[in-house]
Amino acid sequence: MTNGWTDVSNADVVLVMGGNPAENHPVGFRFVMEAKRLRKAKIVCVDPRFTRTAAVSDLYVPIRSGTDIAFLGGLIHYALSENKYQRKYVEQHTNASFLIAEGFGFSEGHFSGWQDGKYDKSTWQYELDGQGYAKVDPTLEHPRCVFQLMKKHYSRYTPEVVANICGCTAEEFLKAAAMITLAAAENKSGTVLYALGWTHHSFAVQLIHAAAMVQLLMGNIGMPGGGVNAQRGHANIQGSTDMGAWNYLPGYLKLPRANQTALVDYLKANTPKPLRPNSLNYWGNTPKFMTSLLKAYYGPNATAANSYGYDWLPKIAEGADHSWGTFFDEMDAGKMEGLISFGMNPVANGPNTPKMIRGLSKLKWLIVAENFETETAAFWRAKELADKEYPHSLKAEDIQTEVFLLPAACFAEKDGSFVNSSRWLQWKQVAVDPPGEARRDQEIIADLFLAIRALYEKEGGKGAEPLLRMQWNYARPHAPTLREVAREVNGVDLATGKQLNGFGELQADGTTACGNWIYSGSWPEAGNQMARRGQVDPTGLGLYPEWAWSWPANRRILYNRASTDEQGKPWDATRAPLRWNGQRWAGDTPDYKADAKPDSLAAFVMLPEGVARLFAPDLVEGPFPEHYEPAESPVENALHPNANANPLLRVYRSDLDSLGSAKDFPFVAITYRLTEHFHYWTKHTSSSAELQSNFFVEVPEELASEKGIASGTLVRVSSARGELEGPALVTKRLRTLKVSGRKVYQIGLPIHWGFVGKVHGPLINKLTPSAYDPNCGTPEYKGFLVNLEKIG
Amino acid sequence: MTVAKLIDTTLCIGCKACEVACQEWNDQEYTLGTFGGTYQTMPDLAHNFWNLIKFNEMERDGGTSWLMSKYQCMHCAEAGCLAACPAPGAIVARPNGTIDFVQDNCIGCGYCITGCPFDVPRLSPTTKKVYKCSLCSDRTAVGLEPACIKTCPTNCLTFGERDELVRIAEARSTELKADGFADAGVYNPQGVGGTNVLYVLKHASEPEQYGLPKDPQIPLSVSLWKGPMKWLGTLMFWGTILGTFVHFVIYGPQDPAKHGHPEKEDEPSERA
Amino acid sequence: MSEPEEIRIPRFDAYERVMHWMAALSFGYATLTGLAIWSPKLYWMGTMLGGGFHIRGTHPWSGVVFAVMIGVMFRRWAAGMGLDADDRVWLTRLHKYATHDHGALPPSGRFNAGQKMLFWSQVATTLALFATGVVLWFPESMPRPLRLASIALHPLAAIGSITSILVHIYMGTAAVPQSMRAMLRGYVVPEWARFHHPKWYRAWRASHRS
Fold first, then answer.
1. Tell me, what's the ipTM?
2. CATH of domain A650-790
3. Is B15–A23 a contact, with Cβ atoms under 8 angstroms apart?
4. Which fold would CATH assign to domain A324-459?
5. Is B40 near chain A, with CB under 8 Å?
6. How confident is the model at residue A371 (pLDDT cuts 50, 70, 90)?
7. Whole-number Å distance between alpha carbons of A601 and A279
8. Do B23 and A711 touch (CB under 8 A)?
9. Structure pTM?
10. Residue of B147, B154, B114, B142 whose CA lies nearest to B28
């Protein structure tokens, strides 16, 4: 979240799209209800299903799964053509005025530079002046400025086109657009709440980019009650992203590539240069972040002479990708030896379950550290436990994978921090000790590490150094405490031995060590800031600066400098998170230099442009989001039939990776969570098992009556990957949509069941495709094609 | 002081947190829910499930509507269950307005089930006693709010002094009316003297849409049974006992020798 | 020389006597437990009989036993319980019976019209008690309208039933000497039979002579 849960109550408009917070974030949703109750905020819910969120919204608009970019593109068009955007904000705080290179364009579904299935992005760049700064036209009139290009790009997204693609009516769209653009007024702000309904698409990153564009046009970024707010789906998923997931090191430092053989190469590639004279360009400090990280990893072994141990960091091949789809594809192809799975249940939550199971069965070993025997730990028994479900699985005796199920402590049996959606690091205490032989994760990892290192010490071997040089400075090496780890993560001044107060103190000369620069300040000399529970609210905006600690620098609203104009005058005086008092910025921790005069620097200090990107040249499939159909779609792309799906859609080619067509699979399926369950976990607990014991298939009323299906009727849902059975839940809440002149039905599939636990049911991901977003590798769990048959 | 619970249905998101809190606090055994074709945990309340969110989906006002409402004991001022209960001390109206079931005194007749106009009490097949929401009397007795209130994430549930809550509810419904919900109102049915569970409804003239009875009352037959029937019975029994006694005192037993004999001439000869 | 043997006219055979006393016992139990449930003032009777929870379990079963016994009686006696012309006159002269003016009454058969009325009233109230009792027995599986009706009808029928049984007890004990012997030992003496049930007595004598 750019803002935070408590801040949602400052909103005048709440757009809930690609998320269902009433069901999946009910506690956070209290702030939506506060906004509704106390500020009379308008809640607009755009969703394929009429959800529990829709039930309390002021306006619900149905939409076909996977057409969100069309809807948001329509909003951009509406805002620009109806002059319902915050002009001054757009001029001052976005790259609307930046000129783009000659030759940039878009036709037939592709941006300029499309050739042989690839993009040459040379025309997507800013036009630079002699000093390397981007040229701008503050009037926004230049035909090659971002504003004009954007206007042109979205001129195709008229309400009728949007309705035709999304399946709502043009009137519904216009009603929503009018409500959402209320936030264009300087003294109004609107928030966007999204979750996996946006990220589970093969164009997920572009989708969120589109939302950011809408919010920038409304002047909502940096504003209390504004922002683009991802509702994270697990207690600490934000923390796991922050600490380095996929191809990132902690603090969103990129993982080195194989061609960056020296630290200088890495730093050169990853340290941006300012693109405007007034840009602070905070990522210019990358050398400080990286060096301090290496010092935290390798301690005294990291010296200037050995580039702080840079060579010991693993590197990935240029262009290689180790995201979910790829590594399971490689596993399935027999290219992987083993997998350690902590708190992760790929058999249940990976797409295309049969491929997950087959992949695991090709490993030599699998380590699962879990509270329960999960589907992944029990994958070798899939046939035995759910024969009907997994007829193609191997029998246990034919699987050679050696599976180790390590009993791990659950969250209440560990201390440490959770990082919530608001970016708050909240320290928690141990409630009870782990039962039986269960151990805490860090103890399991420490034992593994020490045992492997001892083997390397004894026997030697390839790539021994990363382990041998690793710093392991814990009082009890086999059982590091999370307090020790948290202090390491915060960082320390190696000269004085004192905890750092924040990332501003980091150095690139090896005199500071810091495990994650964005968390620096969470445990300074003053003590554990994450354990704070102060409830003071000096701004009156519900920012609670003394409750826990928020990254970065305890800032509660990211980009908060943009809540004022260039001169430092708040857009809305009643809702100013920051005020310039003549010497300093007061209020929230400024996302700015604390003592920099308002007009001295541009507002978006993290970006080399100094302003926010409406035009984002770093994304792989285009600088502007464009509507593409999901990998499996019931209709042709109405905008450009020749570029139907994402041109850079990532798919795999094993025999299990098939995609279906509307001829065989005419219905759109969506997968989702229910309030009552958390993922595939709570089916092991009595209370959640009671609240929602049964798997069901949600079927629209009209389709049900066509097929003679009533609630409770047993139905079969099949996709190109597999099929499953369950009772139907016939509902009015899934509306029949009219798309490109024909009826489209959507089928709802809640995800929470499996073949172990107190309640059993089919694994939904048997049906989902191995189709992935090319930017981040997220699978397309939503908006794929299925068939529905009545069987009972 | 009478306490009450306010349920602002316009803020209910059907998250069921109150259901879990109720189960946990009251230490209920968990059973598997029954699939009834809705999102409801189970189709109805149960002896070990006292608090159910009902999901009512419908088409109205030109769109889909999904009304969620919390269903539990209403703690009526004039409680039908209490009126119907034959076992002294089994159903108690606490001074704070809570209608509490005391299972130690419950005989399991189930009259309360019939007497309740909201169909709330449930008989346990194992203990053969009746159970329902106690308004967490074990919490309220020590100044805590009921478990469901404590857990509600959206401020849909409030607990407090009844008069104050009635004021809050009225204010909220006025607010809703101003927001365009002309039919908004408070559900506090007078047929049972008002309830200590109050609802704010968007469609107050159609409480049935939320699964609430429009005009709940203590059933006539229960009133008859507890009132006139008692008098009638007492009159009849004592009247008969007294009547026969007086009859005996006046007339004495029937005696063939004294009271004439319709067939004297017909003396049997066997004895001769 | 011994006293001449008393002449014994068999009035109720063993089957009838057992049937009656089983009915009586179950009725008594159902009445005591029913009254305990009926009124908090009489709840102590339930406490004496094992407590409210216990009697809630046993009361319906005693009702079942009673109803079955009434059924047995019906099979045995219903045929003879029709009112003949004498009975109808008898009923119009009930006050004569109550004031011991037996000369003013038409002769009765094995059962006089009052007894017949008792029989039919018990059949009727038992039917009502049984039907409503079953409804109240299983409150969770019965539709609410039925339960509501039963809550009022069950005690109403009980009031009728108990009242008539009170009269019956009075008649069978204090009011008509020797009738208890008929139900305990099974016989009456000719004098009693002739006085109370002349037509029945005549029939007995006729059959006895032949």
1. 0.91
2. 2.40.40.20
3. yes
4. Rossmann fold (3.40.50)
5. no
6. very high
7. 6
8. no
9. 0.91
10. B147
